[in-house]
Amino acid sequence: MNILNGIRVLDCSIAMAGPFAAQRLGDLGADVIKVEPVTGEWQRHSAAGGATGNQINVSFLSLNRNKRSLAVDLKAAEGKALLLEMVKTADVFLQNYRPGVAERLGVDYATLSAINPRLIYVSMSGYGEDGPYRSYPGQDLLLQGMSGAMLSAGAEGEPPSPAGQYLVDAVTAYSAFEGALAALFHRERTGEGQLVQINMLDAITTIQMQELSVFTVGGKPQARSAEPHAHSYIRAPYGVFATSDGYITLAMAPLATLGVLLDDPFFEGMDDQTDSWTHRDAIYAHVKAKLVTATSAEWLERFRAADIWAGPVYGYAELVDDPQIRHNGTFVEYDHPTEGRVKTPGFPIRFSKTPSQIDRGAPLVGEHSREVLSELGLDSDAIDRLVASGVVRQHA
User: Fold this and answer.
1) Alpha-carbon distance 79 to 116, whole Å?
2) 307 contacts 253 by C-beta, under 8 angstroms
3) Which of 71, 185, 250, 357 satisfies CB 3.0 to 4.6 Å to 393 for a cystine?
4) Domain locations in the chain?
5) Which tens digit of pLDDT belongs to each residue from 223-246?
6) What is the enclosing helix (H) or strand (E) of 261?
């Protein structure tokens, strides 16, 4: 028995943020029905990294496990009628249409809540449901650029550097996941559904709670150093440093201890809370010059023995093979009917009594259309007619 068993989610979202949020609900046991066009959701046709897969590309595979696929044309009257019928017994409706599209399709909150007042309606957008940027494209890199975070790291005068993850999509997905769970809890107490709105701009802005408060409350300017410091609001040393055979990270080391380990008199008499700011570039330069004289493993051993915060810089190959990652069971493996043995990141939340599990891999387009419509009360003849007319797609 999983925590969200008995909860039904209608996932009408595309790309990453919406599908990722719905997948997390599915991981907790919700029955997630992916309502997608008869041609398949956009992500099925856009393979990140060129990883196309057999019948399902890796992008789609990674974001749509624990879901069933109903492929239906919502622009057809019969198709929309099927969705509205499902809304009657749904618990969560999740969409990330461009602002205004839900109203044009007739699946906006006002319409669906009139059908089912207990419905949790999660609406995701790039910049908000209204306002001057309402129609702008909500794409991860564009929002990273707007967030201000790119100018909190790196060297002054160097180009801003984006994150190595689809950071805004992921933060937005978790915000939607959190919002859906909170609204479900509210409904348990009161019996009433509600509208939950998430936008990418607010999500990436509010996750910078500490940094932006230092700016707005503390009045500290966001100023990068001449050297590539890892964060403008963290004292030196703080960044990535080359060793003789790779790179390591080093964070906020006590300057006196650091000077002893580096055998560098430059650090003598320095105060952590003042000199680490006023001499940030010089500290970086001295650390940089010393660390290239030994290997990453040698420096990490010395730093850890002295209780200095330091760590390796991994690529994905090293991450996947890390002993703590293996110990945690961070990655899960399962057999997919068309893609074979699959290994992907697993479940970040652990429950002692209701652990998450994979009940099914990402579905083929319309793989569960007949099953879902049968549950809706349609007989075989009616489903056959919908398939023959093109309103519904059933995977062969």
Assistant:
1) 18
2) no
3) 71
4) 8-206+326-393, 238-242+247-312
5) 999 999 999 999 999 999 999 999
6) helix 255-262
The amino acid at 352: S
DSSP state letter for 284: H
For residues 310-338, average pLDDT: 94
Amino acid sitting at position 344: T
Please tell me the pTM assigned to this model: 0.91
What's residue 350's pLDDT?
A: 85
Residue showing tokens 């940027």: 133
- Measured distance CA(313)–CA(292) in Å, rounded: 15
Q: Count CB neighbours of 343 within 10 A.
A: 10
The token pair at 345 is 């990141």
Please check the confidence at residue 97 and state whether its pLDDT lies above 90.
yes
Are residues 124 and 96 in contact, defined by beta-carbon separation less than 8 angstroms? yes
Position of tokens 């492929």? Answer: 71
Q: Which amino acid is at 337?
A: P
pLDDT of amino acid 104: 95
Q: Report which of 137, 143, 178 is spatially closest to residue 28, judged by C-alpha positions.
A: 178
The alpha carbon of 158 is separated from its chain's Cα centroid by a whole number of angstroms, namely: 28
Q: 15-42: string of b/e by CB count within 10 Å (b at 16+)? A: bbbbbbbbbbbbbbbbbbbbbbbbebbe
**Rg for the chain, CA atoms, rounded:** 25
pLDDT value at position 298?
Answer: 98
**Mean pLDDT of all residues in the chain?**
96
Q: Select from 63, 94, 84 the least CA-distant residue to 181.
A: 94
Give the pLDDT confidence score for residue 349 in this predicted structure. 85
The whole-number pLDDT of residue 159 equals 86
- Among residues 29, 11, 18, 2, the alpha carbon closest in space to that of 69 is found at 11
